[in-house]
Amino acid sequence: MAEQAKGGAQARTAITPTRDEDYAQWYQAVVRDADVAEMSHVRGCMVIKPWGYGVWEQLQRTLDREIKKAGAVNAYFPLFIPLSYLEREAAHVEGFAKEMAVVTHHRLESRDGKLVPTGELAEPLIVRPTSETIIGESMADWVQSYRDLPLLLNQWANVVRWELRPRVLLRTTEFLWQEGHTAHATHDDAMEYTLRILHDVYTRVVEEDLAVSVIPGEKTPGERFPGAENTYCIEAMMQDGRALQAGTSHYLGQNFSKAFNIAYQTAEGGQENAYTTSWGVSTRLLGALVMTHADDNGLRVPPRVAPHQVVIVPMLRKEGAEEVLAYARRVADELRAQTFAGGRPVEVLLDDTLYEARDKKWKWVKRGVPLLLELGPKDMANDGVSYLRRDQGPAQAVRGSRADLVAGVGALLDEIQDAYLAQARAYREARTRRDITTFDAFKAYFAEGGENAGAAGQPGFAISKWCGDEACEEKARDLGVTIRCLPFEQSGGEGPCVICGRPATVDAVFARAY
Ligand SMILES: [Zn+2]
Fold first, then answer.
1. Distance 64 CA to ligand 1 centre (A)
2. 245, 352, 375, 430 — which has fewest CB within 10 A?
3. Distance in angstroms (rounded) separating the CA atoms of residues 133 and 154
């Protein structure tokens, strides 16, 4: 517990520093104090702690269900990729070359008490940074005829990209993700699927479950995935106004099918290369969760991705402890029989660990459980309950009857879920400017600590016109600002390119980004 004086009033926060004091440090503190993850002793690699992993499991479950609804099935491919596979697609290998982990030996020998790698491999193996190449190699075997298409695959896996500047959950050398890889007979079918995953799976799950509001759109050629013809993405705004790419879906055209000979016989008996796609979301979404919903008292987890929607902390004194515990168990069982989110059972944890009730309360506030019940002898005597809604301040305890809470818990959790999404949306809208039309105004907006500095001293998004010239994009990049996407929702009409002033018709989302 930190105590801080602000504006003359005493405010207490569970996380130090606060967002306003030091956003970067606040982020690290929430990730640590909410038991989401921590950087390990292995450079650049993180440990995802049980509470954080529990959130990931909720996300995984929903994503997996939606991916399967879209027709894809799960499979698993090797962690190691022969170097020669990567060499086959020039743009792809160039994009990942600088961050590869390379296995060159297969044995250890003891020499003078030290272990030394020996047994050099004839061909080095790459620890997968992504699996287009190794899956492409299998697809070439599996696809023979037009009847084999579409081939819709998904893999849940870890990947390795050697990070020079690691940051927990956002940029780590190893992370977890799902990667979808599909092959189609036609351009249209592949393109439709690329967009279907972006809209029906990623946008929906990230907004409806994670309660993170996103802008879907297309990346500029300069920001595309290496080897893709089109890259589509969803971009979210964090509480310091920076953008975070929350998911991508790539249309790969015939680039990989030509490199890996994924060819099929057409109905007419001809030979044709398939059209492929790939798409992924990762444990980076946990970073997005923290940066979207956490506050100065810790994480706030939307009910649909919370490992438990309700935690009960019994207030046990020496006298009557057994009775209070029995009452707490009864309330837990009654709540477990309820559902929310259109039929999901309410998960309830009764925290009967031996810590002081007050410490337990703050632990769950910091972890961000949606509903925290504190049950003591008084509640029991009144057949009542006291609870905290994590979407409201930790000082605002609600008292009510046990029966009312049990009957209303599903609706209450749905209300909390909606509140989080509404807050995230309102925050982004408030920090988005659509009226910046000149480069001078653009520079002023994105200047450090400029007139538009928000809570964390940063601006937000600018949705302005862009002429399509890469030179203009580069000029923005010099200011530390990138085009996050060309949003699908376009305002229409013509205006000056915000960088060069020439006539332009396309809206672009400009922002600093993670
Ligand atoms: Zn321009």
1. 41
2. 430
3. 14
